[in-house]
Amino acid sequence: MNTQAPRRATWRDWTALAVMTLPLLMAATDMSVLFMALPAIAADLSPGSTQMLWVLHAGEFVGVSLALTMGWLGRRVGRRRLLMGGVAVYGLASLVAAFAPTPEVLIAMRALMGTAAATMSPSIFGLLRVVFTDARQFSVAVAVVMSSFSGGMALGPPLGGVLLAHFSWGAVFLINVPVAALLLLATPLLPAGRERVEGSMDLPSVALSMGAIIAVVFGLQEIADRSASGSDGAVWPYLLPVVAGLVLGALFVRRQLRLPEPLMDMRLFATPAFTVSLGALLLMLLGYGAADMLLVQYLQTALGLSPAETGALMVVPALASIVGGLGAPLLTRWMRPSAAMGGGLLVASVAGGALALMVGQVGVAALISAATVMALALGPLFTLGVNLIVVSAPVSRAGSAAAMSDVAGGLGGALSMALLGSMAAVVYRRGLDGAGLDGIPGPGLEAAGESVGGAVGVAEGLPADQSRQLLDAAFGAFTTAVQTGYGLGVALLAPTGLAVLWLLRRTRLDASEDVPEDREKAPEVA
Questions:
Q1: Which of 131, 162, 189 is the last residue of a domain?
Q2: Which of 44, 71, 103, 342 is deepest in the core (most CB within 10 A)?
Q3: Distances (CA, A) of 146 to 20, 153, 187
Q4: Are 180 and 210 in a shared domain?
Q5: Rounded CA separation 158/293 (Å)
Q6: Is the Cβ–Cβ distance between 132 and 387 less than 8 Å?
Q7: 479-483: long-range contacts at Cβ-Cβ below 8 A with a sequence spacing of 24 or more?
Q8: Is 250 found in the same domain as 112?
Q9: Other CB atoms within 10 Å distance of the CB of residue 155
């Protein structure tokens, strides 16, 4: 092990950190602002229901499937060069997306933006490992970068509300163009982060990783979508891409074990800090990702808040998440990472359970308070989980390790939307079907069963008594759906918190500032 003292960061290093926060801030803002723009996009481009799903998820699916590839590519071409190339493509794709004439063009640009976004996290965390060699300073740098992502998620709803109030939906993409230009001008402030990597990229590994992730997520999304919509079509054919994806994933793992320069170094999974943190991130986002979406819909439909009011309220839990993430390095000064991460998961599960019980019984302030406690408690898991994942790998593989956290986070979020979100939709539809709404015309009842927003639209064209009857039934069914979503989240968060407390009980961050290149030393102490 290298016995030299870690180099303390200079003002130039902290300036580089400030630059590195902007790409993730931009990408995160895009994710949350798009929810606000979907109704306007639907009204203008008239996409089908499947096309709307791909507008929403195409970028995420492509980005997750390419994350491992970008982690390897950054070592070969240079992390700064890869990052800025991604930023340039992101800006250009955003410009075209803003003026997309058809749903197909918009979906293609969203996929291209996802490809560009895949370059960001592996490049940024790879550069952070080069710049910040002191363990405590690295923890602070990770907290700042992860908080920039949370900040982007917080900024999206209110920014989207303002832009959509004064401009067309294309404005939510146009705002990326000046940010991308500013980042390109700041390129000289970043270190190059280039290494000598023997051999060329293993294209079969790229194909296997992309095929595995896209097939699994596509199959599960279609199964969930058809189950939620009550479609008469068979669901079982979509099990085939899921099975095919799992087979491709197994072939990918087998190939990685045989390659001298794999896309994903499977030996990292022998490190408990790496494996447990990766699993905790995936399960946390699986249990929590769809909950926010359900709460936003509940505030706008059942409680009648405007999009701007809802966006402003959701800033509060988002800011709490930033505080929780930034405070993580301070927490580890007097507790182990396992206590901060596992304890936070347990607190979040209690808050989620309380929120599930309160929905339909209390006002906005109590609901936002519970959501804020959840976000604050989960903040340290984002920061410390990514920190442990990255420092579990040698410096040269930090980008690839960060890519794995992207894959886990992307899969967790996407599967949460597809599975838990759709399960809540099934609960809503069954609740509405059992409400005895015999006087509502068949087509209107079918449209109301698609979503609570559809029920509100149908109610506007009905007589007053039928309108009230439909809205009462729809809001009651959706309240049960929200409770189901949070209840399922609690069922995942609580056991995950207990597992983290036990499995990482000996893990310390300050025991991992030097990981030899010849062996992925775990950040563990006896």
A1: 189
A2: 71
A3: 11, 11, 21
A4: no
A5: 15
A6: no
A7: 479/298, 479/302, 479/359, 479/360, 480/427, 480/428, 480/431, 481/294, 481/424, 481/425, 481/427, 481/428, 481/431, 482/294, 482/295, 482/298, 482/356, 482/359, 482/424, 483/356, 483/357, 483/359, 483/360
A8: no
A9: 19
What radius of gyration do the chain's Cα atoms show?
23
Pseudo-torsion of CA 335, 341, 343, 346, nearest 10°?
180
- The pLDDT assigned to 516 comes to 43
Number of domains in the chain: 2
Q: Are 284 and 496 in contact (CB under 8 A)?
A: yes
Which element (helix H / strand E) includes 287?
helix 272-301
Q: Please give the pLDDT value at position 522.
A: 38
d(CA 317, CA 328): 17
Q: What is the pLDDT of residue 1?
A: 42
Length, in residues, of the chain: 526
Cα angle 384-86-201, degrees, rounded to a multiple of 5:
85
Task: Check whether residue 184 and residue 208 sit in a common domain.
Answer: no
The token pair that represents 26 in the structure block: 């931009």
- Give per-10-residue mean pLDDT for the chain (526 aa): 62 89 88 77 77 79 85 84 94 94 92 92 87 84 86 79 83 92 91 64 87 82 64 70 92 90 83 91 85 80 79 85 88 89 95 92 91 92 88 78 82 75 79 74 72 76 81 86 89 94 85 44 36
- 132 belongs to a structural domain: yes
**Taking the chain, what is the end-to-end CA distance rounded to the nearest angstrom?**
17
Q: Which two tokens stand for residue 28?
A: 């995160």
Tokens (6 digits) for 83? 């990052």
Domain-embedded: residue 514: no
- The parent domain of residue 215 ranges over 203-260
The answer to whether position 442 is within a domain reads no
Q: What is the pLDDT of residue 251?
A: 95
CB atoms within 10 A of CB 274: 24
pTM of the model: 0.80
Res 11: pLDDT: 83
CB atoms within 10 A of CB 518: 6
3-state SS assignment for residue 507: strand
Structure tokens at 14: 């902290």
Report the distance separating Cα 136 and Cα 308, nearest Å: 39
Q: Which residue has the tokens 């809001």?
A: 475
- Amino acid identity, position 503: L
* 524: three-class secondary structure by DSSP: strand
Do residues 180 and 88 lie in contact, with contact meaning Cβ atoms separated by under 8 Å?
yes
For 487, counting Cβ atoms within 10 Å of its Cβ (0-12 exposed, 13-18 middle, 19+ buried), the class is middle
Q: What is the spatial distance between Cα 135 and Cα 514, in angstroms, rounded to a whole number?
A: 9
d(CA 324, CA 443): 47
Task: Tell me: do 89 and 57 sit in the same domain.
Answer: yes
Q: Look at residue 372 and tell me if it is in a domain.
A: no
Last residue of a domain, one of 189, 220, 242: 189
